[in-house]
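Bit of a strange request maybe. I'm writing a small parser for structure token strings and I need a real example to test against, not something I typed by hand. Could someone generate the tokens for this chain?
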Amino acid sequence: MQRYQQIVATGVELVEQVTGAQFALGDLALEIEPMRAWGSPEPCTVSEPEFTVKVSLQRFADDIGVSERTVTAWRWTAAKWPAAKRRKGISFTVHRILGSVVGEAERWASLDDPPFNERSGRRQWTPDGAKRLLGHKVDIPVTVEEKIRAVTDLTRDDKVAAAVTADLLLRPAAAAQVSQEDRVRVVAELTRDDEVAKKVTTDLLRRPQVAREAMRDDTARLLVNRAQFDNSERARETLRERVPAVRKIEHTIEYLDLVGSCHSYVASLGRLVPRLRGQEFTEDERETVRRGIARVRAAADWLESAIDAGVFTLDEQLAQLLKGE
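Reply from user aminoacidic:
Good idea to test on real output. This should exercise your parser:
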């Protein structure tokens, strides 16, 4: 531990030297090319009309063996922090980050209020601390918001996001933290594909409690009944295509049902009408029976027409009549 403290002390001295050197280099770059007001034209000589600020800084960078981008960063930071405002013990990196503070007074004052560093247990400026002050992305996220931002940035690629999502959903503790509304939204998104939705729905309806609750919804119950009817019809159509004799059997059954219905109706009237002898009916009762007779007559006419013409569709007007409307 003692040796580590010695190493840290030496490191602090070296960082101070590096910071001094970086500011000195920034001052030199400012001497070559002073900062100008935004939008002002870049000066150039008649002999060298293309000798702009960028070209000048690039030449300086080449002559000292660094990149023009590095020289530009030194120059910008030195301009933001005049010599009298620079603070000993605070790295050049922190000065550069805090250089983005807009107001000069606020920028000068920012150095006097370092954030608390939980790792070291004291108030001190670090690059991440400076980034937090400005709302920038930090290198080592600590708060929940910072971690969420880091994960969001790392999962912008759809393939990465898909793999991470699948892994997270397999963690019960993580899934338990998701609200019911968000769970419903996630499931809805994941089941947009019909094949996935079919598999999930089938598995869910195999759970008795879920099935009972789902069938309490009128729309869901209606759609399930309709689906069952459609499946039965599809099964019958498939059977008819594979076994032609089935259609003949159905024709015989339907024919017998139709003839039986006519016979049943006539037989019912033959049994009921004689019993009405001596009974008196009110005008409302007679009118009700007449409406019934009209419906019977319309149905009989429709049946006769359908048998003769081979047209078995039910038009809207007749449908309303048969319903008594």
